[in-house]
Design brief:
This protein is mostly helical. Helix content is 53%, strand content 6%.
Amino acid sequence: MKNEPKAVGRFVKDDVWSASVSRGSHEIYKQDMQRTKSWQPDSFRINAERIRAGELVADHWLFGRQAAGMIVMGYISESELEPHRQALLAEHAKHRDYWVETKESDDKDAKTIRFNPYEDIKAELYAKHEAAMANARKRNA
């Protein structure tokens, strides 16, 4: 029975698991740990860079509070957002390009109105963005 494994516990004096999990316990990692404690990701800056790079972003980064935040913080300008907005609106138009017919009133002789809801969607998105910009400017004033 010469090849029996020996118990590791009698050779280990400290709590090895805790030492291996806690990188800060090693002297060489101390500086690295201090630097990373204060770092926080800035989603506004990240998404502004993604927009500049032509990458896809969620629509709330193009219209509304998040878009207003990026602009007010100076990460991006309205003109940089506009091509992405137009692409989003073109996608809406492609999928929602249908006409809706409705009557002016419940009267059966009432005139039929025909309209495309895309224009309402577009107007609503820009109105939402303008309201968010006004609020963001108030907060940062």
